[in-house]
Amino acid sequence: MTVTYLGVRHHSPACARLVARTVERLRPAYVLVEGPSDLDGRLDELLLGHELPVAVFSHYRDDERAATSWTPLCAYSPEWVALTAGRAAGAEVRLIDLPAWHPAFAGRANRYADAELRYAEATARLRHRFAVDSTDALWDRMIEADPDAPDLPERLDAYFDAVRGDTEADDSDRARETYMAAWIRAARTAAGDRPVLVVTGGFHRPALRRLAESGPGGPAEWPTVPAPPDTALSGSFLVPYSFRQLDSFAGYESGMPSPAYHQWLWEEGPEAAGRRLVRTVADRLRDRGHPVSTASLVAARASAAALAALRGHPVPGRLDLLDALAGALVTEALDEPLPWTRRGPLTPGAHPAVVEMVAACSGDRVGRLHPDTPAPPLVHDVAARLTALGLDGTAPVTLRLTDPAGLDRSRVLHRLRVLGIPGYARTAGPADGTDPVTEERWEPRPAAGRDAALVEAGAYGARLDDAALVALGDRAGAAADDCAALAEVLFDTVVCGAGDLAGPLVTRLRAGLAAATGPGPLGTALATALGLWRHDRVYGVARDPLLAAAVDTAVTRVLWLVEGTAPGGTTGPDRARLRALVAVRDALLHAGPVLTVPRDVATDVFRRVAADPAAPPDLRGAAHGLVHVLARTPQSGAAEAVRAAAAPAVLGDWLAGLFAVAREEVAAETADGEPGPLVAVLDDLVVAMSDTDFLVALPALREAFAWFPPTERERIAARLIARRGLRGSARALLRTPADPLALARALEDHVSRTLDDLGLGAAR
Q1: How confident is the model over 583-631, as pLDDT tens digits?
Q2: Separation between Cα atoms, residue 371 and residue 727, nearest integer Å
Q3: Rg for the chain (alpha carbons), in Å?
Q4: Interatomic CA distance for residues 496 and 469, integer angstroms
């Protein structure tokens, strides 16, 4: 009896062909495949007749650990070919790796993540030896360029022996290899004088051979499949997968890039795959309006043939074709190296032709499960809930939240939203607690990936209510003491109706508020908590004492941080801090009875800040506005303060703070419809500025007036036109064809580059 060890690279067409040829030649008694052994009893389900690619999604959750992982399979995955060809040849097929829930896979989202990427020193030496840029280019040069080479097994052995070398495996790999070796020993005994074929990742092959051949013999005792603890929630289910998920250019951490190209390579061979690649790239570019001439394609084909000959490839391969197409279709210099010279996703700003080349090689195929494929309980629970509530159609849905039936439907849709299930998107409704809206509108969206998302969400629980609660709990745990993130979770918890989580979450939020070191996150949390406390009677939390305590904590903390703000320059307004002060204003105006800081004490804090010349200008402006709002001071005070802050470098920042908290009060019109004192003073100040001072002040002034809604800006513009005794359209005045500051900056940059090109630039 012989054991043949085939070390493969996951999702390699060349390795898949070798597996098929080896099964045909050996006709083995057993085919042992790297994969989750707890699925051995469900191979009939795995081989039902799905449209590939598919993946085995596995999840695990106990009191200490939660994990999910995927085992993806496509038509040219060597593991898939081993399973299907082995069964067709009459072999006993077994998956022999540890289950995905096992601690050996802790921190690994993908079972087939390339081990050689974790042991990169050897591959770096090989890349240097073969003068290639990336591991994928090295693999293409050694293996995929000639998949039918008679010495392919020897090439694979040499490659993986070099990758593994004398490197000591980590604890995870040792546990897995020890377990797989036990399966190999049992199969060797059970097979008698018939062959056994072992198909695993090539990195494991040297260790498996050593462990299996040095281990004890004896009766064929198949290893026990480890079972998860009784207290854990775990399971494995098939999900549809896509070529995009398989593509390393999209960030996939395993296997091969360009899955569509490799599918063509698997189905049609290298020459036909090359022709299809060139044709697909040309079609995509032309469909998107990029000119692609026949002459350019002829030049690309000739260049690809020359590159293949230079590199010793029998026919042009993937990299030969991509390099040639880039040379023919990209005529300007690129800021980044071509993406196939490295591993990982495309960088932002990639050339459009390069983007289309990568997309053409990636493809858009999406797998589909056989109708008889078992699904987790959550899939059935969601289907039943949607049908019962009339949410299984494709029409927009408007829900009145004051109606119990509407509230029930809203909660179901929100639970699906927090679980990331596609199908509906909310286009109107309360965005946070400050918005006392009692209607929601949900519109259908493309449901691509819905089945897979539901299966994956089954990791949180068997029922929609439970799954949403667990998902929200995980988000709360991940938020730690980030009060802004906790506030977002709190709002989602309320709209999902997860009352059991809301109380502990508010308690955690209050602790996060007390420890916050910046007003920005405090403002987000305060606005949410205050809005829920004030408005959300629909959800049953209005005037909640825990929310009131959170509001009080946030207001006290913001006041303390604001008065202790370090001196600032003129770098622009801090919008997050200003939004926090808006929330404090609302709390002081509408929740005074639950605050430990009285309004007059808070007003004194803001008076001190407004008078502090070392405070940042935007903070001084906001403090002045808050004094005006809280103490009901006359408008003339704002006009006088503007004159005091009239320096061009600080005026806009000061006004941004003022407008953020007191826009309506300080910009109100007089009784006879004229602009208020503040607008009139500002008009006089701007008119009196020199051209230089105006250009200095203009960017910050524009940002300050951005706090006004468009209708209010238009009304101010109309009053200013009338103040001059002129007639005209305020709306036309506000609509400029281009940003003059952006045009000025572009002109300056152009002049600077021209001077630099001529050697006349300023010395640096």
Answers
A1: 999 999 999 999 999 999 999 999 999 989 888 999 999 999 999 889 8
A2: 71
A3: 33
A4: 8
CB atoms within 10 A of CB 161: 14
Per-position DSSP letters for 445-476, written without gaps between them: ---TTHHHHHHHHGGG-SSHHHHHHHHHHHHH
Distance CA 527, CA 120 (A): 49
User: How is residue 176 written in tokens?
Assistant: 């897995």
Strand arrangement of the beta sheet that strand 92-97 belongs to: 3-8, 196-201, 30-36, 92-97
- Cα–Cα dist 316/321, whole Å: 6
The two beta strands, 3-8 and 92-97, are unpaired
Separation CA 338–CA 670 (nearest Å):
63
Place of tokens 């300007």: 332
Helices 483-496 and 404-418: crossing angle, nearest 10°?
140
Q: What is the pLDDT of residues 70-92, one digit of tens each?
A: 899 999 999 999 999 999 999 99
Q: What is the pLDDT of residues 622-656, one digit of tens each?
A: 999 999 889 876 655 667 777 777 788 888 899 89
Of 209, 190, 332, 238, which is closest to residue 35 (Cα–Cα)?
A: 238
Compute the distance between CA of residue 88 and CA of residue 92 in angstroms, rounded to an integer: 10
Q: Which residues on adjacent β-strands are paired with residue 442?
A: 397, 426
Residue owning tokens 């495949």 = 33
Cα 207 from Cα 173, distance rounded (Å) = 10
Supply the pTM of this predicted model.
0.75
In order, the DSSP letters of 377-427 are HHHHHHHHHHHHTT-SSSS-EEEETTSHHHHHHHHHHHHHHHTT--SEEEE
Give the list of residues 6+ apart from residue 724 with CB closer than 8 angstroms, or none: none
Beta bridge partners of 51: 368
Of 677, 616, 676, nearest in space to 650 by CA = 616
Q: How far is CA 385 from CA 303, 392, 414, 449, 463, in A?
A: 59, 9, 13, 19, 10
Question: Exposure of 186 by Cβ count < 10 A (0-12 exposed, 13-18 middle, 19+ buried)?
Answer: buried
Q: What gap in Å lies between CA 211 and CA 185, rounded to an integer? A: 9
Q: Is the pLDDT of residue 569 over 60?
A: no
> Which string of b and e fits 312-324 if b means at least 16 CB within 10 Å?
ebeebbbbbbbbb
Q: How many CB atoms lie within 10 A of CB 70?
A: 21
Of the candidates 141, 129, 132, which has an alpha carbon nearest to the alpha carbon of residue 314? 141
| pLDDT digits 0-9 by tens, 295-327 | 999 999 999 999 999 888 889 999 999 999 999
Start-to-end CA span in the chain (Å)? 76
